[in-house]
Amino acid sequence: MIANGHVVGDGSWDLRVFVTDLQTERLIRVKGDVHIGGVMLRLVEDLEISMDWSDHALWWPEQNKWLARTRSTLDQCGVHADSLLYFTPMHKNLRVQLPDLRYFDMRVDFSIKTFSAVGHVCKELGIRHPEELSFCKPLEPNHLKYNYKDLPKKKPEQNGAQRNGNLAPDTNTFIANSSPVGSTGSLENSPFMCAPVTPTRGPAASTPVGTPGANTWGKNGYTIERNSSPFSANMSLNLDQLNGTLESTLASSPATPSSEAKRHLLRPKSLIEKARMNVSWLDSSLSIMEQGVREHDTLCLRFKFYVFYDLNPKYDAVRINQIYAQAKWQLLNEEIDCTEEEMLMFAALQLQVNLQAAQPPQQQFPSLESNGIPASSPIDDDIDAALNNLQTTLEGSSISTYSSDITSVPELKDQLRFLKPKRFTLKAYKKYWFTCRDLHLYMYKSRDDMVHHSHCVMSCNLKGCEVTPDVNISQNKYVIKLEVPSSEGMSEMYIRCDDETQYSRWMACCRLAAKGRSLADSSYETEKQMILDFLNLQRRAEEPAINPSTLDLQVEDFVAPKYLKKSRGKLTQRILEAHANVKKLSLVDAKMNYIKAWQLLPDYGITLFVVKFMDSKKEELLGVAYNRIMKMDINTGDHQKTWRYNTMKAWNINWEIKHMMVQFEEGNIVFSCLSADCKVVHEFIGGYIFLSTRSKDASQTLNEELFHKLTGGWS
User: What is the mean pLDDT of residues 557-582?
Assistant: First the structure.
């Protein structure tokens, strides 16, 4: 029997496909064994419109997924007669905010995994090593007030928030509507949805409500928003026009961000709020479309993993500038703590960056290594670089000057002051003789005991300990706080040095020992010099190099709010005094010194999460760093237990109960994450493991499969 030109009873049915470009719906007669590519071919033939459809694919709104496997059949994909598919471009306009808070309108592939999409964006922007970055959604004040599961549902927009009964998509719930590859599928049962609810009929849900022209497509291009000279505000450039100046544009940023960017800045007031800020990271294993992001939405591009590989000023002008900008805003927004002296040093370096950036390139200072923290300078050519590497290889590791015999184990000896704090007891520092040898710290009452290694008062293994500086140069305070692993947790002790030279020796020694490196390691002298230079940058000069009356300095743009209690005149004077130490640095060197100083801060590179450990009812902090994870006090941030990645056996997630288990040589830990989805924690740990596999082989390509295997939550 034939009806309407079709054989009835042959198993075929009408598939509804909505073409977003044309805002029209078509019925395609299909069978379940028709593959996805065949559906698209029939649709294009039926449209009879001569245009390039190669960037289009089928999106299934109800299931919140792309039908990307063109050789799969409708039956294999689960598509039935009541399904509605969208035929829509894979590349869509996305508003991207860079670390320096500027906005760019970019064409981004919404159909590939976020990890790959970030790689393509970074390639267009000229940022090397895109594996260090990721997308995150813009935060709102509510995200700092509530834990992840307690976030109130976002209310619909008042202006036409509903169209045909369909809620506008909520792009700030941070929940994927599909499970990571290899999971049990528990994410599908989440009470929060990122993707819009799809109506049973009609094209109304094809674009976010209130988004004008969401289905109009222009040429590939950027819209650049700037608010200071030499660029005009809201300047829009086509990509073809911008390509010639892209690197110079991104390698330098406006002194202050746009008013819109300022309005959206959030300042966490506690450790819990700092932890809640990490709720916004996208899942790298899913496409951005699957995570509720729609065309013309805004995503933030940020450095996610704090291990910057092969940072070279010769090739990384854009990357250095964006890292510098992210570090600056972390400090100014109090996302990372520093002392007042350190804040003034950062302000001085920022001022030097601004002054150098305002100069024509030919008038900028040449690259200098003096008056700053040692940093990698641009190599004149590859031959010089190869010769330097050969020289280092031939010379081998440098042995500490404290041991002249090359066959003996290097040892550091000194008289220091020691304090082991006890609750409800006030104790003063006492002098002891210390020696550090083979990653162990030994304490003696007398010099003779130290020389003969007898009557040791205390000894501890520094490997795996937490080393925190407690320095105030103006008060001549040079203290090293050690938190050493013990059976009861972390045992706390303080060592006070007499001067900065002694402090630099012992701080470098303790930092290397914590990583399992001895005094014989070739990096000891570099670490020691870096600490000394970091302290020198914080010293106040006798007089500023710039007359304060000739400079209109807005101190709130240079100093975190908690240090703005002093008068503006006094703060300006102190910033200019600190600037005298860095006045000869070039633009790139000033940024590199800023980055190096940022990396020396105690809280640098520690991503926080609010968690609840198994068999514990109280909330605690989990800190994830590049080489370890830490259990921390939620109020003070004190370290209670540290686990190093080099002792880790496995890590995985129970998707049914949303618990994460990490197996170490010393035992297993199990916890649930309260401030973000457990997948975020899993991805941080797996991501750092992945980044540790990078080598200096220039021909090495990024192993995306390995990244997803380590971060995707596979069982």
Answer: 91
